Amino acid sequence: MENRYKIQCLVIDDEPPAREILIRHIASLESLTLVGSCSNAVEAISFLNEHPVDLLFLDIEMPQLLGTNFIRTLKNPPKVIFTTAYRKYAVEGFELDAVDYILKPISFERFLKAINKVLKMEIGNEQTLEKSKKDQIETANSFLYFRVDRKMVKVFFNEILYIESLKDYIKIVTVSKSIVTKYVLSTLDEILPRNDFLRVHKSYIVNISKIDSYNTDSIQILKNELPIGRFYKLEVNRVLNASSAPS
Question: Are 80 and 7 in contact (CB under 8 A)?
Answer without folding.
Answer: no
